[in-house]
Amino acid sequence: MQKVVVCGDTSATQDVTAKLIQSRLPLAVLLDTPATEHVGLDGLIALAAVSENAFQKATPKQLADADVLIITDFAEGAAETVQAANLAGMRRELKAAMGAGFSGRLLVATQESELCTHFAQRFSGLKADAVMGLGTMGLTRCFEHSLAREFDVPAGAVTAYVIGTQPDFTLLWSRAYIGATAVMTLLQDADDASGIMTRVLAACQAYAKAADGHSLCGLVERLLAANAGSALIAPVAVRYDKGDQPLVYSRPVQIDRRGITAVASVTGSEAEQQSLAEALTRLSAQIAAIEAGEN
């Protein structure tokens, strides 16, 4: 049984906690929040009373032997407000966790997943392969399901990836497949190829804008299942060292009991790789600005 602690102070915190209480995965679920009125603690206690998984409010001592620490947003509203609250909340939570002796894995399920994953890894000092964010995992599912609808095939027949960052992503059209056939080949024979690509992109943009706790819950649960041994290949936010500047971005990796393992690099077309490079340049500048402000 995995012992998971959910941290945060928003409706997404409540959504994720409720999902895990009701999960078929064997979990001991704990909640670490600075203001219980924001996450409906009484309702979660009532939910646990009719669910299989145990639930309680966390104490600092319980952070020590947690298997996974799940970080959700610490504020709602404008992006700047959420970012500042998330950085402050993560620093506080991780200081307490590391002080208690936490040595498990971190799962970042926040807005700006890649940026927060960068700082979660830095604040905690954990190895890079013990810290991951949801990244573009949800966008990848949206991409695959949108393609399935456009070509009227089962979603399981589609393999496609979205890389980059949650707010600044790239669809890998050149590496998308339905069965063994490249989507770009199918588009060559389609009467409305440009319309298909436009609609799929619009669906992904809409998802990226609207994704909240409800849409993230299933992703968190699936990653916990992978952590328990049900291996998964998905694009999650992970730190990669590149020269003197470490970068956190989403690309396909394998997640299992061992943690995060790199798989064969999935590279896109020249235009797709350029789009990724530009996104990472913008992310690096954003991180540098935040770190300069800290100093």
UniProtKB/TrEMBL annotation:
It comes from the Bacteria. This is Lactate dehydrogenase.
